[in-house]
Amino acid sequence: METDKLITEFTKFHIQQAVERLLAGGVVAFPTETVYGLGADISQPQAIQKIFEIKGRPSNHPLIVHFSNLSELEFWAEDIPATAWKLAEHFWPGPLTLILPKSKLIPVSVTGGQETVALRIPRHPIALNLLEQLGSRKAIAAPSANRYGFVSPTNADHVKCAFGDKIDVILDGGACEIGLESTIINCVDNNVMLLRPGGTPLSSINDLLKQNIQIQPHSQIRSPGSLASHYATSTPLEICPTSEILLSRSSTLLQQGIYTAAVTRSAPQISSDKLHHVLMPDEPIAFGKLLYATLRKLDEANFERILIEAPPDDLEWLAVADRLTRASHSFRK
Q1: What's residue 216's pLDDT?
Q2: CATH code, 2-215
Q3: What distances in angstroms separate CA 154 from CA 7, 35, 38, 201, one per listed residue?
Q4: Among 28, 73, 83, 187, which lies 20 to 30 A Cα-Cα from 63?
C-alpha cells in the first residue's frame, strides 16, 4: 500500500521519537492532508500553553483536537447529533472539522474557554500513525504550524523557517495533498452551519445531507481561522475582481515604480522587469494546493505589492475566495 510505503520511507523511528516528545510535554510539527500542524498532547497543559507562546496566538482562540478513531468520538464530545455522526462517518478521516459540545476531558485551554470543541480525524498517513502510536483515548491539540495570522505551512521547510529549533520534532511528510485548511462545520444542537470553507467541498456536504448548509462566517462560536485578517503575507496583497482590472492596476503600479507580483489564471499581458507574473491553475483544487506555497515564495522575494485575480464566484472556489479575502484584509482596511 502507498500508506505503508510512506511510513516505511519516513521511518517509524522518527514517529516514535515524536510520540515520546509529546508524552513528555513537548511540541511536535506534523503533516496533515491540509496543512502542517503544531501539536501537543491534549493532557499536557504546559505543552498546550507552549503552542500559544510559539505561535503568538491569543489564548481565547481555539485549537483543533486531532484523534485517530471514530469510535472515540463520544470520548471527546457530548450530545452528538445524528447529522454529526453522518458527516463523521462519511468524511473522516479527512479535511472536515466538526464543532460539538466538549466532553469533560477537553480542557478549556484548548477550546478558548468555550464549551464547544473542534474535532477531526486527519487523513495523512503520518498524522494517523502518530495518533495511533500515541495510544487509545489520546489526542493532539494543534493549530497550523505557522506564526499566528500568517500564511499556513504546506511543507516542512515552511515550519523550519518559521520556528527553527523552537519545536522538539518536525515530521517531514512532503507537500500537503490539499494545501488549504479543513472545512469547519458547527453541529451544536443539530444546527448545521458552515463556519469555514476548506478541504471538504461544501457541495459534497450538501449532497450528503440533501440540504443547502447555511454559511455563517460570524458565529458566536469562535472557531480556528475565523479572524477577518488571517493567512496573510507580510507584503500587501490586493484582490482584483477581474483580469482586466488586474491589468489596469498592474500598469498603475508599474508607472509608480512599485515592484509587483501578479497572480492570475491567464497568460500575462504586460512585460516589465518591475512585474513578476505567476500563472496559477484554472481549477479550484489545483489552485488551492499551490496557493500558500506561492504566496510564501512571493513574500520572500521582496515584492512591494501582490495582485491576485479574484476566483470565480461559485461554490467550488469558496475556500480559495475565503483565504484570499482574509489575506487581503489589512490592505482593504
Answers
A1: 79
A2: 3.90.870.10
A3: 18, 5, 12, 19
A4: 83
Burial 54-75 (b: 16+ CB within 10 A, else e): bbebeeebbbbbbbbeeebbeb
Would the pTM count as exceeding 0.90?
Answer: yes
Select the CATH number that applies to the domain covering 237-332 from these four: 3.40.1050.10, 3.40.50.11030, 1.10.150.130, 3.40.50.360: 3.40.50.11030
CB 193 within 8 A of CB 213: yes
pLDDT in tens, 18-52: 999 999 999 999 999 999 999 999 999 999 999 99
Run of H or E residues at 127: helix 125-134
Q: Is 331 left (phi over 0), alpha (psi -120 to 50) or beta?
A: alpha
Retrieve residue 101's grid coordinates.
Answer: 459540545
CA separation, residue 218 to residues 33, 195, 225, 312 (Å) = 26, 8, 12, 23
